[in-house]
TrEMBL record:
Organism: Nocardioides zhouii
Name of the protein described by the UniProt record: Cupin domain-containing protein
InterPro entries for the chain: RmlC-like_jellyroll, RmlC_Cupin_sf
């Protein structure tokens, strides 16, 4: 077994699409999905851009203000997530800062638990 501390992953700043105060660190990449640790400083923004694949943003600490194609801004906090569909233009901001995880790729979001882990039978 290995333990990972997301804050210890090498992060790199991202400024594309007008982003600022935003950094990423990959901790898992496969042919079908990317698992990425993200951090937004207070006032940081992930600028509007299209999702390359289905994208799930899970907030671990802090809070995020997220919007999708409809431009409605929703606030999410720890234990909550936003899902964007492939090609959907979206944006994330964090007035107070946030750490989270993005999973992007060929995902079936909301699959019943028995499909993920059938348990002992």
């Amino acid at each position: 077994m290995r333990l990972l501390d997301l804050s210890d992953l090498p992060h790199r700043p991202i400024e594309a699409h007008g982003s600022h105060g935003f950094s990423v660190g990959a901790f898992g990449i496969s042919a079908d999905a990317h698992l990425i640790a993200v951090a937004l400083v207070p006032g940081g923004t992930i600028g509007r851009h299209p999702a390359a694949g289905r994208q799930l943003l899970v907030v671990l600490t802090g809070e995020a203000e997220v919007s999708g194609a409809e431009l409605t801004v929703r606030r999410i906090g720890p234990g909550q997530a936003a899902v964007w569909e492939p090609g959907e233009v979206h944006e994330t901001r964090s007035p107070r800062g946030m750490t989270g995880m993005i999973v992007e790729g060929d995902l079936d979001i909301g699959a019943p638990g028995e499909q993920v882990d059938p348990g002992d039978v």
